[in-house]
């Protein structure tokens, strides 16, 4: 039958071993909780950064949408104004050509009516041949006048048409130069915007690299600190166990039992007592 003191010593040593194991597990759990809390804080920071970037992109999208709608409305107004100008010029040209075409038949009708009257008078009243001759001369002069008037009207219509075409060509040239200038300004604006976007992207990439290197250094430092702390704790535990006359492992790398450790401690105790 075992001695009560021996049983008590065994129970006390088992209790101490259990406490040491619990302390070690507790420290490991605390370290793990700290690591997880740090990772959670980093994830929260990343989420906040992503939310800020998303808000910035949303604002840029709204600004671009407003600018595009304004440009579209301006283009529609410009197109409607040009259409009105073209219609007005076409109406003006049509009115000028219609007035010239009206004057030509009237002049021809006047020129044709005079010889007919003269022939009728010469046929009915042959005695009035001298008067008929004078009327022929008057008809010839009226024909000349009508032809001159017709040529003048044609020249007027031609001049009006040329002036209208010239104005239209001038407007088209102005529109073309304005469109080219708008295209050039648009290209410059796009180039500047692309350059700013590239610079921002490069700055963000540099910041990301710096943050990554910083996190790696912090992780390495934390890992070294944890290793050093575990090593110090292990050394302290070994020192405490060695103070009671026990070692953590035997020659074969195995942990000795409580009976072997107790016997080892008893041997040391007896040796020290004998020496004293």
TrEMBL record:
Q: Name one GO molecular function term.
A: transcription corepressor activity
**Does 4Fe-4S appear among the keywords?**
no
Q: Which InterPro entries match?
A: FLASH
Spell out the Basic and acidic residues composition-biased ranges. Answer: 133-154, 164-185, 191-244, 266-276
Q: Where is this region: Disordered?
A: 126-276
Coiled-coil intervals in this record? 19-92
| Any one GO cellular component localisation term in the record | mitochondrion
- What GO biological process, any one, is recorded here? Fas signaling pathway
Q: What UniProt keywords apply to this chain's record, in alphabetical order?
A: Coiled coil
Q: What's the protein here called? A: Uncharacterized protein
